[in-house]
Specification:
Blueprint: E1 5-10, H1 18-32, E2 36-41, H2 42-45, H3 68-77, H4 83-94, E3 97-103, H5 111-120, E4 142-148, H6 153-159, H7 163-174, E5 180-181, E6 185-187, H8 195-210, H9 222-226
Parallel strand pairs: 1-2, 1-3, 3-4, 4-5, 4-6
Amino acid sequence: MAGKKVLIVYAHQEPKSFNGSLLKIAVEELTKQGCSVTVSDLYAMQFEPRATRNDIVGHLHNSEAFNYGVETWEAYKRGALSKDLVEEQKKVQEADLLIFQFPLFWFNMPAILKGWMDRVLVQGFAYNLSKAYDGGLLQDKLSLFSFTTGGSKEKYAIRGDIRYLLWPMQHGIMHFCGVKVLEPHICYAPENVSEEKRKEMLAAWSQRLKTLWKEEPIDCSPEWYFK
């Protein structure tokens, strides 16, 4: 939709990968719609995933015992977070839609993307303990988790509904921060299917993006994940 701003947080090492193709399609299609698209390519940026003392500029609130949550909250309030965090927070603040593009690792997002969540979405910026979920500080934004798996859809059905894995990502992070969540986009086992099937997956992603702004967010309740 023209005028909308999109941030794509991309976590894959190889631009020529299937994830790279999904990223390319998203950038092209959303730009074609008149959206302003920004990409945080975490591996290319050599984004630091570790939450450390280096994230605070200047003095600590409590130099006797380091508490990352407290220190980043205090640093955010006085404008003393590290430059890389401030830059990412600005991208998030300006975005109408957050897309997270990544391969599923061990039923979870890659460590570099989890580190982005840990470091960027700090208290005061993304949430306050008294203002979480529907009252979170990042209201009026949409999010979408687009990812690939190593196993087939049938194998995930045997192991348990893949929605279980989405509970900590979509509900525990995005919804907690007040962000509305769109239906995830899952490409199952692209490395283990035919070239024709991969092309179908890419075409389906492109097609979905054409009408993405008309979609309604999911019901972020336990029933959606565990029914």
